[in-house]
Write a structure and sequence with these properties.
By secondary structure, this protein is mostly helical. It folds into two domains: 47 residues; 39 residues, no CATH class. 49% of the residues lie in helices and 8% in strands. The protein contains four helices and two strands, in the order ααααββ. A two-stranded antiparallel ribbon has the order 1-2. A hairpin with a 2-residue loop joins β1 and β2. α1 packs antiparallel against α2. The longest helix has 14 residues. It starts with a helix and ends with a strand.
Length: 86
């Protein structure tokens, strides 16, 4: 098997994305002019991305069951904040 630059690039992108490396970094390594090019070509490598994002979002707002969010601080006016709601 002959390794061409294309095969090496595909393998690199697949490995990096599966390891959780940010797509912007992968895009820069591959020399793409935009991260959207990388995501258009390689998004199939990350089939569980939507599910993982939904789980992390759920964990962040499930106050009693994790350590991600201790309190939610929302700026109201200049010096006024609401520390927790719900």
């Amino acid at each position: 098997m002959v390794l061409t630059c294309s095969i090496v690039a595909i393998a690199t992108a697949n490995l990096m994305l599966r390891q959780g490396i940010h797509p912007k970094i992968v895009s820069e390594r591959l020399g793409h002019s935009s991260v959207s090019i990388t995501l258009d070509i390689y998004s199939h490598v990350l089939p569980g991305l939507q599910k993982a994002a939904a789980q992390r979002f759920d964990e962040a707002f499930n106050f009693g069951h994790n350590n991600y969010v201790e309190k939610l601080v929302i700026p109201r006016r200049k010096n006024e904040v609401v520390e927790k709601f719900g």
